[in-house]
Structures are given as structure tokens and as C-alpha cells.
Amino acid sequence: MNSLQGLNLKQSAAPLAAALGALALLWAARRAPLALPPAIVVDALGTFFAFATFAGLALTVIGRAAPAFRRALLAAGLLAIAYLTSLTPIIAAAYIGVALLSLPRRPSGAAEAPPAAAPSGRRALRELARAAGRHAGASAATLAPRALHLLPATLLAVGYGALALRGGLRYDDPAAGAALDGFVFWFVLLAAAVPLLPLDDGQRAAGAGADPRPSDALRDWPFLALRIAWLYPLARLYSLGPWNEGWSFAALLLGGGAGLWTSAAALTSDLPGRRYRLVALSLLGLGLAGFGLSTGAGLAAGCYATLTFVVMSAADREAAAGGAAQPDAPQGTGDSSPGEAPAAESMLALARSAAPWLLTPAVPFAAPFVACWMLVGAGVAGGVSLLAAVAWLAAAAGAGACVLDSSWRSAGRATLIASAASLLLGVLAPVVVLALIQPAIEQLQGGLSVFGDVNIWPWVGLAAVDSARRGVTALPSIAVAALMLILSALAYLALRLRDELGAGDGAAGGPGAAQQETGARSEGRARPRAVLSLLRDEVPWLGARARREEAPGDDR
Amino acid sequence: MTIAELLALLGRAWARLLLYPGGLAAFAALWAAGLLVRRSAGGEGAGERPASAGGVARWQGVLGLAAPWLALALLPLPYAAAFGRPVDMVVIVALLECPRLLVAARDLRAEELAARGVRRLAAALNGYPPLLGAALVLAQSVGSLELGAIAAGPDEAAPQLAWALYLIGAAALLLALPPLLELGPFAVGGPGAPLPGGDLLAIGLRLRSLGFVLLAALPLLGLLPAASEDGSPAIWLVPLPPLLVAALAWAFGRLTAGRRPRPWAQGYLVLSAALIGVLAYAASVDLRARLS
Lengths: 556, 292
Known about the structure:
The complex is a heterodimer of chains A (556) and B (292). Chain A is mostly helical and 556 residues long. Chain A is built from 20 helices and three strands. In chain A, a hairpin with a 5-residue loop joins strand 2 and strand 3 (471-475). In chain A, helix 11 (274-292) runs parallel beside helix 14 (367-381). Residues 108-118, 201-218, 322-339, 504-526 and 546-556 of chain A have low confidence and may be disordered. Chain B has 292 residues and is mainly α. Chain B has twelve helices and no strands. Chain B has helices at 3-12, 14-18, 24-39, 57-74, 89-109, 114-142, 147-152, 160-175, 177-181, 199-223, 240-255, 261-291. Chains A and B meet through helix 13, helix 14, helix 15, strand 3 and helix 18 of A and helix 1, helix 4, helix 5, helix 6 and helix 12 of B.
């Protein structure tokens, strides 16, 4: 298990300790918010977000050292202050600090070009004008993403500032609910929605036609996990009172739209690694929609989606790097490495091959699938079947996108860890919901409606129930995983038996399997644009028919 | 629910896993279907010689077989042993789709099979919108996505709209089968290339097809007259709806073989849009009832 040696414990120790502290606080505050001095609030929602933030940061850096770790840790510290105070101006100020800390640095390839030798006369003026235009364009291109990064903090400052000015200086003040109006809500909602957009500075170069630069994509990656924090100010509004239908509808529209759009964009993207990030972002969009449902089931779906995003963002770095997993990945696929512990190497190769699948909505007990499933249940229970359709379609598109993604073949250490976390989060979903999310639902009950709740069977699974407590969806995740294990063992036995019986017919692995193995090694070369063009040809809802380029191995 | 209850639940599931609906019954059905397909004009699987599993491909075969097997075992078919906890359609569809996604991913990674992989993925993407539209219309009619509730159908006292939705959903589920089963215009075709994971993944794909046929037959099973106290129909009637669905799917495949997929895909898009319209209408009726 070479890949599990040399974990980045140095950087991950601090966020890990903070996550454990948040977990302890969550346990202490699971029945009621802790009684503390004024302006300090330790309740289930705040501690849940604190746990998710620090756990995400720890998970992100435990696989490999992070370049911007100190900035990210400082930002997480500011977020912890925001989570544990009831003073709305302090919350807004903390988020402004986070936005400033997470400002993207200039891309490495954006260095100023040396000025060319200026010719004389009118031609020189023309050249000067062109150069000025180029410079302005470059400045705008550099400034635009920075402004976009500051936009949510600005919107939040306006929203929470208005809340404070209208009497909601402390959200736990009994009279603060009167300060919540449409103006406040819209700004807070937009502040939550903007970070759902794929603001990937590292991918812009690739979008412009150049090769993606892994260094650009990875520079600010620790901040990816912190994007969940923007959902907190919105969810916190439930502490002030129930939302009206228009607000819920707007949150559903924005979150569901963003989720569907990003998952469809993941399917049609041809940039390596980008698909994976878009799938993760689509889950965050669905999480926003879950928060917008104003029901216990919706809140559970939203919180679970944030946890899933945190897990997926831990592996995002390798996907964004387009194969950054190779340095610590053995090159064999199970049949190599004669000598030291071939069985262990074979197991590791299997784990590396299977791990990326656990970070997709394609596998029924992995966290991304469970996140989408929870929103489907919450949607049907809340009478918003269209949201359920969006969540289900987003899961299907996300699964398809991950099938198409050729950017990561063999998982690296970070992906292995994230996959294990995803499997645990998915299979143990009832325990996770019971321990981490249910207390928040109970404490925010005053702001929620009765149209949908979560029914937890601790040792079996989860179910969504409607207002009459009738089952709407049911996922006995632990039972299904156990049965799957039994059937997998049976299938494996059958495979071994077949291999034993068929040993005389030819070598195990045969020509077909050998072809598949070499195919697996020579992948990436499947010409993603041509594949995408062919896919668009046959699937009308993916958009306009693209000009058909070379079709890979078209045998029609 | 305690761990003892979980163990009891798992223990009681053996008949479902090994005899019926999964296990013996499913494999016997596959064997019979294989005989029929081979006799009729060569069949799709006639030239297919799956390869042995090697190295990393082994887990794909195992997962690709176990997932649809489990999905079949969890289906609430009449006369199946009680499972103790319900399962919904989202989970069953995800389990059934595992082998197809695994095969599509492997095909895409091999240069010479990439077009086949794309066609398989395209069939899946064309099939999902009508499938989930149909499932949600069914859920709107019975108030649940749980398969037991969908198989049972609306209450007798349910309004006419619920029954209309149920019939629309059942018909749409039937119509969604061709892209799901890769039939007719959505046939993947191509030479019988060896599958990764060997025989297991090939069997998994066939179990998956059987699972979707049974899923589409569930509402029809619910419409059969009850013959026992628990509402199960007469035992000789049980195979008829799945056989009818399979025959319809097979006939569609034969009649539309070789057609271009895009016009059909556009038709399915229209069907999906219509289902969304039905859903929106039903939701608005629900909302009015809730507000009044």
C-alpha cells in the first residue's frame, strides 16, 4: 500500500483537529443550541457547516500538499467565526474576508508580452491602438474573474447588511424575523447561487484553444471545498422564520437550473478534468434546490449534497490536472510488478481502477448517487416532481459524463481517499443523516414546512416520507450494500470457477481481454471531440448538431 | 431497527437472491430467451464470444453481474418472499444501469470500439428522459416512487386523474423500452466484440434487459385481478405481462431495425416533453387542492 504511505499529515492535522472539534460541538448541541454569551451561537446548522468545511479541507490536503493551504486554512477559520456567531454584520464581514483570500492569482502564462519595436508614422499609431486594445482585453480578462469572485461577498454584504439595518442585527433575536423581506432574501440567494457557476480560472486557457495548464488549475484548488460555505447564509435564514412560496420557488429554480445546466455542460465538455468538476458543482446546485424546498427532506438533501461536494472536491485536483495521478500510481494493472507482494499490488491496481467510479452518480451506494436520490425523494414528497426529474436527469447526465471522461484513468492517492470517503458516506447515509443532519432539521423546524421529511432506519437505510408519513422513496443502503457484497462474492466465485474450467481453452485474459487492457492503457486517445460530436449527433437534447469531425472507428 | 433485525432481513432475502425473482428464475428466463433469440434469424448475441476477464477488468464483471442480479431480486413481483423494507425505482434503475455504463466506458477507452461505446451511451441518454418522466408520472399517480406502491396502483377510491396518470405512466414506461434495451434504431450493433469482464458482464447486460422488461411489466401486473388475500393474481397469469412486454419490445426491434436513431431520438424527446407537461399539470392540480 505504497500510495497510502506519506500522507500529508502535516497540513491535514490542523483542519482534522478542527473538524473533530466541530463534530464534538455538533454532538453537544444536537438537542438544543448551547447556552453561551450573547452573539455566540453553537447550534446544529453552524456546527454542521463547520464540520463540513474543515473535514473538506482536511480531506483535500491529506492526499498531497496544497500550494495555497495557509490561505485556505485562514479562510476556513474566518468561516468558523461566521458559523458560530449570530451577528449578521460579522457573518458578512467574514465572508468578505474569505472572498478576498480566495481571489485567484494571475495565470502563470499571463505574463506581459515584451513590447515589439515600434514602427513609425500612422502604422505606429495603429500598432499602438491595437496593443492598447490587447492590453485592455487582457486586463479585463484578468479582472473579470476577480470581480466575479468578489460578487457573492458583495451580494451577501448587501443582504445581511440590510437585515442588520432593519432590526436583524442578531439572527437569534426573536424580533429578527420581521427584518427578513424579499430584498434581503434575493441578495442572499444570489450570493449562494453565484459560486455554483464554474469559475475555473485554470480552464480558461484551454477554452481559448490552448492546452490546459495543470498548474493553473491546481493553484487555488483548496478553495474549491470552501464553496459549500456560500450555502450557509441562505440556510441560516430558516432561523428567522419560514420562507414564502415565491422565495422557495426562486431557490428551486436557481438551484435546479444550475444543477441541470452544469451536469449537461459536463456531458458536452471536451476539456480534460472539467467534466468531473462540473458534475461536482451540479451536486452543489442540487443542494441549493434542496435548501429551497423548505422541508426537512429538502434540508437533509441540501446538507448531504454539501458533504458529497466536499468529498468530490478532494479528488478534483487530480481530475483537473488531467492525469496528475500518474506520479504516485504504479504503471501495472495487476499483471506487473513481479517480486514484492504481487497480490497486494494487484489489489491496489483494482482499487485504483474502481475508485473513480465511486465518485460518480453511476454507482448506487456512492455518495453522489445518494445525494441525487435524496433530492428526488424530497422533490416528490414536496409535490415538486419537476425538481425530482431535474435531480434524476442530472444524476444520469453526471453518470454519462463520468463514463465519457478520459482524463483520469488510474486513481492517485487523493482519489483513493475520496472514493473511500464517498463509499462510506453513501453506504452509511442513514448514520450520517442521523448524526450530522437530523439535529439541524429539528432545530430549524420552525422555518420548515411539513411537506416531506426523512425517515431513518439506522441499520438499514433511509426513506423520504410525505406530509402523511407515507413512504415516497426508500433506499435501504446498508442492506443493499450487504446483499451486493454477497452477490459479488458469488459472482467472483463463478468467475474463478470459469477460469479454472476454461484454463485449457486459452490463457486467462485471452486476446479480447488483452485488447481491452491495452485499450485501457491507450485511452485518452479516443479523440474526445469526435466522440462528443458523434454523441451530439444521436442525442438531440445535448444541443445543436455539431459539425461532424472524424468519427472514431465508425463501423456503420 | 437494530442490527439483529438487519441480519434477519438479510437472512430472509436468500430466496429472493437465489430462487425467485433473482437467481434460478432469472437465469432460467435468460436461458429460455437466449434459445428463442438464437432460433429467430441468428439473434443479436449469436456471434458474440465474450472474453475471459483479465486483471483490472475482473471487478467490472463482478459488479456488472451482481448489480442487475440484485435489482431483479429486489423487484416486488407476485409470490416473491417478503423483503421487509421497500425499495424505490431510482435505486433499481441505477442497479440495472451499472453493466451498461461499465461496458460503454470500456468501449470508449478502446479506440476501435469507441463508436460502439458512443452509440451505447447515446441510447442510454435518449432513454433516460422518457424513463424518468414515466416513473415520475407513475409516482404522481400513486404518491410514491416505491416499487410496491407502483405495482399496486392507485387506490380504488383514487380520483380519475390518478388512474389516468397511472395508465399514461405505464404506457410511457413501455414506450421507453427500445432505447433502454438498445432495440431497433438504438441497436448498438457492430461485430460481436469481446466484452470486458468476460461472460459475467455479458450475462449482466442480459439480466439488465430482463430487469427493464419486468419493470415495465410491473404496472400491468398491478392491473391483473387479485386471486388471493394478499392481492396477488393467479399464478398462471403472472408470466403473461412480462411475456407481452418482451414480445412487444422484440417486435418493435424487428420492425425498426436499421433505421437511423436521430429521428427516433427526437420522437422520444417529444414524448419526454409531453410527460413533463403531464407532470406540470398534475402538480398544479395538486397544488390547488393543497391550497384550497
